[in-house]
Amino acid sequence: MANNEHEITLGVLNAVHDNSHVTQRSMAGELGIALGLTNSYLKRCIKKGLIKVQQAPANRYAYYLTPQGFSEKTRLAREYLTQGFQFFRIAREQCSEIFAACSQSGQRRIVLHGLTDLAEIAVLCAKDHDIELVSIVDPSSRLRTYSGIAVCVELPHSDKFDAIVVTDLGNPQREFDNLVVTFGADRVFAPGILKVSVEPEKIDDGGDND
Question: Is the pTM value of this prediction over 0.70?
């Protein structure tokens, strides 16, 4: 699902490039955004000179990329790809740091929480460290194994693993907090890229501190 301005713009340009007779409704479905938002971005691209529109038979419209539109599509695609590589590099470094620390402290049996792109990177990193990935926990996944690792609906018994690494991308803070409550902060880790706060949130009760 497109979730930011550049990604939506790139999606619109790609859709027009692939099919000049694409409808706004099908474009909205492809991008996973509202029809009104699709219309807004399409008009913006036309106003910027990235797309030209021509009326076709039966009150339909045909859309074409202008030379400027082709250039912008290439630029946005390169930027998107670069961001992907940056995510991979940072995530790999941070997962490696966690696994190295776990190995040094004797926490060698690791569970990943969330079968996501981050978990896939963690699986790659694990091969470089003296650890064992016991399982990947993800109640929403239909897979039973991933890269030879069991994919489970629930966490195994606490004596079957030494540490948990949060790889959930949906709500990592909530998952982290819940796991810390159950297993303790010394057994739960989260890569910094998830922006998880490891300190409990302080709540102002409005009382006096005198």
Answer: no
